[in-house]
Every structure is written in structure tokens, then in C-alpha cells.
Design a protein that fits this description.
The complex is a heterodimer of chains A (297) and B (276). Chain A has 297 residues and is α/β, with parallel strands linked by helices. Chain A is 45% helix and 18% strand. Chain A has one domain: 2-enoyl-CoA Hydratase, Chain A, domain 1. In chain A, the strands form 2 sheets. In chain A, strands 2, 3, 4, 5, 6, 7, 8 and 9 form an 8-stranded mixed beta sheet that branches.
């Protein structure tokens, strides 16, 4: 059996310390569940909270130029350390009204197409792209299906994979299913310390695998979707620390810690030749997985 | 229909060469739900298939190609690491041979028991298709019942040409999930191939029995003229004016078929190459 892992190289020492600190808790059910609660904390910073702190001149753009605008995905451009940067983020709401407006962070095809519209601009104008991922999954609705939810996710992945500009994907909260990965095919994939990344939400898995909506904790323990584990599996290149107690405790500090990683990483990526960046990005996603080889059959 | 039956049905003389058949599922999460994942895999393997996809090199009506066919009978056709890897190997072998890739899907989506590594297979199939595209080779999709979740939201949505079998359910979220989440009452034909055709997500609804003929026809359209013809035509392009060059280029597929003496080539040729 071969399980692939990787690390981001420079800057990895600090990150690895975090991973090591979390490593021993990987299978403890309670700790995994705690991480999931922190990842979903209603006071946790969302993309617009980070953007307000890191890119005060941000210009939000709206609409996919085909059908509509998806409030569950925010997208735009701003100045970041003296240069233009594009951001696509999955935005949840904080109070009841805002949550409904943001559709609980569940993206629609229009959201992914708005993202692709921005990616196209990045490509032409040579602007790096950062995605901020936080979703329980893409919106499951008959309308979304008719408007091509599956194809929108697939095409968003393909477009991200092919970008010539540097790209960084940050799982800032809950990264669930293809709805998250649609924005996650980047040069570097990084998770905040209390973020989670999984094939499905624990509630979804509970209903499907245990045929019982009440087994979410059990499902969470089985998936072990913590940042530390994703780092070990090579799914995340780095883990960015959060303020003591979690990102929700201190938004300014959470943004500062993310800024440290992002600014350094974008610089590193810009130093690579374009073709090399794309080659490494392909290679990164090509090797992920765990298979056995049998002989003599 | 199993993947093997699919391949037998499509391949000329029923002969095909499997690739990456030595790959088997592993259990990176040591996953247990109502049953350990390893046991689920063992009982699926006991039924005969080695995984939920079989990749093979074959010819359909004389057209060489790679086919990655899924098997719903193996853990619901779910996409874990082996499915992603075998699909990628099929695409890479297609690039090595310079032939098109066809995939036939029947899948409930990502294999949950492999956790986030199963999710990553979606991206892996995208990488494989990107390489196929860079090599200028077509990707043909056949959506069988059902094609849902992470399979529909990755390679299955990216066919250059996409056929669907009659009545196949094609959806990112299944009807049950949608009804539970949104309390919508779905129409009986929700996500069905025929409806997907109406909504512009597939090119045609094709009966299984017609697949060998339809795919053979399609691959013949995509077929490139042999290398030496391409060479001479390229030098013509360079020497002659652009108008004539354009006519030659238009006539190319028909010319190529005729040169290789395929039966029925004249009927298929939309641009008779009189002056080429």
C-alpha cells in the first residue's frame, strides 16, 4: 500500500509543529467533534471578515453574466501587499436572516460560474487567486440540478487546474464534498487549525451510511476530517494556526496569522516559472489516494 | 450490466486488454460504519469484479480507443482511490497510444469509506482529462443509470460528446437528499436522461444496444488522417493559398476514411473531396 503525503517545504516547520501537536488526538471522537463545532462556530470569521482586514480596498463583483448572482459565494478583487489579488470565498451568514440570504453557505451553479468568470479575468490580467472555502456542500435542489450544478463544479475544478497564475486555496471552516473541492484545485491547499475537510458532512454520512440521522458524531470520528489528518494524508500542504481558543475568539489575530502564510506563499509561488507551477499543481492532485497493488493475478 | 459485460459488448470480437487491473482498494482511514470497509470490499470482490471501474484498451468498429467502464454492482460504483487511479491510467494510456477515451459511468458518487481521499479522486480525474485535452484527444461520455454525486460533478460532466442511456438518473444530489434538505416534491422524471437532454446537459439519449454502432461512428468522425497524410497536407498548407488549404482541411475526415477504404465512407462524407 502506498499513501501519498507531501509538505509545502518552506514555512513547514511551524506548520509541522501544529500538526504534531494535533496528531496524537487524531482518533479521539470528542476532539474530532470539537474541531467540527469550532469549524462551524457562528462567530467564526467568514471570507468578508478576512477580506475587510487584509484588503480594505476590496471591490466585490456580482453575477455570473448568465443567470444570476449567488450570495453564498463572494468574489472580487483588491490590493494585497501592494499588488492586485482576486478572492473567491464561500460566505455563510451570521444571524438568521443573513444565513438564509447566504443559503447557509451552500453554493449554487451561479456561484461557481461567478468564480469562473473571475478566474478568466485572473488569467488574462495575470492576477493571483486565493479561494476561501467554507461550505456544508453545494446546494442540493432541483433547480440547481437543472442549472447544471454537477457540470459547474467539474468545470470550476478544470478551470482552476489550468490557471497559469499562482493559486492558493484556504479551508477556513468546513470543507464538505465537491461543493468545496470546486474551489480547491490550487497550487497550495492550506487549512486553518480548526478547519475540516471531508467527502461529506457528518450528518450526511450518518443518514447514508448508518441510516440514522443521529450518528453524526460517530461519522465524524470515522472520517477524522481534521486539519492535522488532512496534512498527514497530503490533502493539505500546511496548517495555519488560529488564535488560542479558535479563530472566532479574535478575528484580527486570525486574519494576521492567515496573512503571514498567504503573503509568503504567494511570493514563493510567483518565484516559480509558470509551466513549473502548473506541472506541480497537476502532480499534486494526480498522486493523492491510497491503493494496493496485487501481483500474480 | 457489469463492466466486463460492457467491454465484451463494445469491443470488436469481444476482445479487450485490461490496464491497471492489479490495483485494489486499501483502507487508509481504517473505516468502520455498520460494517468495516475491508469487509465490504472483500464481499464485493467475492462477486467477481476487482473494483468499481475497469479500464481497457480495445477497438470499437475498427476504431482503437481506451474505455473506462464502471460497475454499479461493486459498492454502488463508488469512486475511491482505485477508481480515480484506473481512470487516470486509462487517460494516460490513451495519450500514449494517441487514441480517444470513452467512459461509461454507473455510480452513486464518491466512496465515503475512503473519506477526503475519495473526494480528491474527483480532482485526479480532472488532471487526467486535462492531459488528454492537451494531447488533442477526444473524451466521450456514456452516462448509465445512475450517475450521481462526485462522479457527475467531475469527469462525467466533461465529455466532448455525452450520451445518456434511456431512463438513467443523472444528478449531483440524489432525489432523497434533495427532498430531505429542501422539502421539495420532485417530479417522477427528476434527473432522468430525457430531461437532462431537454435541459442541455447531454447530447443524445442512446439505447445500450446501439452503443457500439454510435460510438464507432463517433470515433470515425474524430479520427485523424494517418501521419504521412497529415505531413503532406501540412506542406500543401504551406505552399498553397489559404482558400484551397481550407477546402483540403474540410475534406480531411472523409479523405482519410476513403484512403483507408472503410466501407460506407462515402455515405458519411459531408464534404466530398473532389479537388483535394
Amino acid at each position: 500500500m502506498s499513501t501519498s503525503t507531501s509538505s509545502s517545504g518552506r514555512g513547514g516547520r511551524f506548520v509541522r509543529r501544529i500538526a504534531d501537536r494535533l496528531h496524537h488526538t487524531e482518533t479521539a471522537t470528542g476532539d474530532v467533534w470539537d474541531a467540527i463545532q469550532l469549524a462551524r462556530h457562528q462567530d467564526r470569521p467568514y471570507p468578508l471578515d478576512y477580506i475587510a482586514r487584509l484588503m480594505p480596498e476590496f471591490e466585490e463583483l456580482h453575477g455570473d453574466r448568465l443567470k444570476g448572482d449567488d450570495p453564498a459565494i463572494v468574489a472580487g478583487i483588491g490590493r494585497y501587499h501592494g499588488a492586485p489579488l482576486a478572492v473567491i470565498g464561500q460566505q455563510k451568514g451570521r444571524d438568521a436572516q443573513d444565513r438564509a440570504y447566504r443559503n447557509f453557505g451552500m453554493s449554487s451553479p451561479e456561484g461557481y460560474r461567478k468564480g469562473m468568470r473571475l478566474m478568466d479575468m485572473c488569467e488574462r490580467l495575470n492576477i493571483p487567486l486565493v479561494t476561501l472555502i467554507d461550505t456544508p456542500g453545494a446546494f442540493p435542489g432541483a433547480d440547481a440540478e437543472e442549472r447544471g450544478q454537477g457540470g459547474a463544479i467539474a468545470r470550476s475544478m478544470m478551470m482552476m487546474l489550468r490557471l497559469r497564475v499562482p493559486t492558493v486555496a484556504v479551508i477556513i471552516g468546513e470543507g464538505s464534498s465537491g461543493g468545496a473541492l470546486a474551489l480547491g484545485v490550487a497550487d497550495r491547499v492550506v487549512m486553518l487549525e480548526n478547519a475540516t475537510y471531508s467527502v461529506i458532512s457528518p450528518e450526511g454520512a450518518s443518514a447514508i451510511l448508518w441510516r440514522d440521522a443521529g450518528k453524526a458524531k460517530l461519522a465524524a470520528a470515522a472520517f477524522k476530517p481534521t486539519a492535522a489528518n488532512c496534512y498527514r494524508w497530503g490533502v493539505a500542504d500546511a496548517v495555519v494556526p488560529e488564535p488560542e481558543g479558535g479563530a472566532h475568539v479574535e478575528h484580527d489575530e486570525a486574519a494576521r496569522l492567515l496573512d503571514g502564510y498567504l503573503s509568503r506563499t504567494i511570493r514563493e509561488l510567483q518565484a516559480l516559472p509558470q509551466a513549473e507551477r502548473r506541472r506541480q499543481r497537476r502532480e499534486r492532485f494526480r498522486r493523492l489516494g491510497a491503493v494496493r497493488e496485487v501481483t500474480g493475478t | 450490466m457489469t463492466a466486463r459485460q460492457r467491454l465484451d459488448h463494445l469491443a470488436d470480437d469481444g476482445t479487450w486488454q485490461e490496464i491497471a487491473g492489479e490495483l485494489r482498494a486499501s483502507d487508509p482511514l481504517r473505516f468502520v460504519d455498520l460494517q468495516p470497509y475491508t469487509e465490504r470490499v472483500r464481499s464485493a470482490e467475492a462477486k467477481g469484479a476487482t473494483e468499481a471501474i475497469t479500464s481497457a484498451s480495445l477497438a470499437i468498429q475498427g476504431q482503437p480507443c481506451l474505455v473506462a467502464a464502471m460497475d454499479f454492482g461493486f459498492l454502488g460504483g463508488s469512486m475511491g482511490s482505485v477508481v480515480g487511479e484506473r481512470f487516470a491510467r486509462a487517460a494516460e494510456e490513451a495519450v500514449a497510444q494517441g487514441v480517444p477515451l470513452i467512459s461509461i459511468t454507473a455510480s452513486g458518487g464518491a466512496r465515503m469509506q475512503e473519506g477526503v481521499l475519495a473526494l480528491m479522486q474527483m480532482a485526479k480525474t480532472i488532471v487526467a482529462l486535462d492531459e488528454l485535452g492537451d494531447a488533442g484527444l477526444p473524451f466521450v461520455m456514456v452516462l448509465a443509470h445512475p450517475t450521481t454525486g462526485g462522479v457527475w460533478a467531475s469527469f462525467a460532466s466533461l465529455g466532448d460528446v455525452t450520451y445518456a442511456e434511456p431512463g438513467a438518473l443523472i444528478a449531483f444530489s440524489g432525489p432523497r437528499v434533495i427532498e430531505q434538505t429542501t422539502r421539495e416534491k420532485l417530479p417522477a422524471d427528476f434527473g432522468m436522461a430525457e430531461r437532462q437532454l431537454e435541459h442541455g446537459h447531454v447530447d443524445a439519449v442512446v439505447d445500450r444496444r446501439e452503443l457500439p454502432a454510435r460510438l464507432g461512428h463517433l470515433l470515425a468522425i474524430f479520427a485523424r488522417p494517418p501521419h504521412d497524410e497529415a505531413q503532406s497536407l501540412a506542406s500543401q498548407l504551406a505552399q498553397n493559398g489559404s482558400e484551397r488549404a481550407a477546402r483540403v482541411a474540410q475534406a480531411l475526415p472523409g479523405l482519410s476514411r476513403r484512403l483507408r477504404g472503410r466501407p460506407g465512407a462515402e455515405d458519411l462524407d459531408p464534404h466530398p473531396a473532389d479537388d483535394a
